Fold:
Amino acid sequence: MYINGEWLRSEPTFPVSNPATGETIGHASDGTAAHARQAIDAAQAALPLWASETAYFRSSILYRAHGLMLDQQRELAELMTREQGKPLKASMNEVKYAADFLLWFAEEAKRVYGETIPSARSDQRFLAQKQPVGVVAAITPWNYPISMLTRKLGPALAAGCTVVLKPAEATPLCAIATFEILAQAGLPAGVANLVTSAEPAPIGDVFCTHPSVRKLTFTGSTAVGKHLAQAAAPQLKRVSMELGGHAPFIVFDDADPEHAAKGAALVKFLNTGQACISPNRIFVQRRILGPFLDTLRGRVEKLKAGDGMDPGNSIGPLINEAAIAKVDRQVQDAVAKGASLLAGGARLTTDGLDAGCFYGATLLSDITPDMLIYREETFGPVAAVVPFDDADDVIAMANDTDYGLAAYVYTQNLSRALKTFEQLQFGIIGINDINPTSAAAPFGGMKESGLGREGAREGIEEYLETKLGGISI
Ligand code: ADP
Structure:
């Protein structure tokens, strides 16, 4: 753990395992509620000085951290592949994406503008100034174990907040490596603190109830996000929530079915489907269903699962046994209710994969609303195709979910693309595009997918308060 500028190893520790092999690759301190309080006290003590530093100073540290992260891209990516499982190339991309947030917010730090506002009184002036919200508590997930940290740390530190962060119990080593970079970059003691733990709930309770914490930022499941938002409500702490998703991927019959299927294969199996923006229902207009499925099936069958350290493998393991069980339950349920299984559909245990958590890349068609997969987030390598006939019906079908994070649309008709963009109740929409994410673009969900936005110009606002001065002259 990293508290008040010092590395701390407490006993007991908990083991961290490689999901591809089951091997223990390291240990992390099993931090307690007392450690969380200690870290918050350190962040509170460091706040006045950090908040009063110039934006240029804070920016310079983030720039340095950005450079260090790129210098260490390969080592960080290898650690990520061993701890989280994604193929090394995907880990390299994630480290770059993580560094992008440090760079973006190093730049945004200097653009925290206020304003002067005309008054109705000639003897009065209004001055609105932005200030940091204060101590931030952050809870992060395992699926993107470095970029989800910098997406919070970058803007919080740029704004002048101090931070206490608890990473997911599956990926504490990536979090430790990220904090090593902040320390190397010269971040003053207490400004960012790391508490690892095998048991998240007691730490979460402290984050939600400690009076010094003014803001909670969380990325994870909708169930935990709701629990934390409720726990933070009595003190009216500000909250940002990046929660689950159930992305529709709509392919209209004026689109090129092969191009759309390639896109679907690329985005669906990214990170073995363990992404909150992963397509969960692929709606395909029936006239082009045949060529779409042929192309998608060809792609799915070529995906080779295995240890992400081997460059021949394009799909890594799921994070743990519970994830395998959830995916398999959804697949079995769909097949039992009449879905067509076109590829995969089972755990992989041969060719040396028996020690890891591997599930075969799976393609299902004829998915209907009564199936679990139509509503529940899958977080696994299953492409679920829902044929549709009428273009007028599909928007309502796509919006028929409590989630509202990402959606994808394939069409060559500009008017249809824009109308669909406007009608979909989702925060992030790819239009003939499968990668609508960037440090420069606002990321976040509607409905039960979350509150607030990360990245972009908006990202830093989440960590700022507006203070008004009314001045008589
Ligand atoms: P997932 O199901 O994808 O693992 P979670 O929402 O359980 O998603 O985990 C996301 C983050 O939330 C992790 O850092 C995890 O430790 C943390 N977490 C899980 N349960 C709680 C809780 N009750 N209080 C605080 N944090 C929690």
User: Anything to note?
Assistant: The chain has two domains: 2-243+447-472, 247-431. The first strand starts at residue 2 and ends at 3. The pocket of adenosine-5'-diphosphate is lined by residues 139-141, 166, 168-169, 200-201, 204, 220-221, 224, 227-228 (CB under 6 Å).
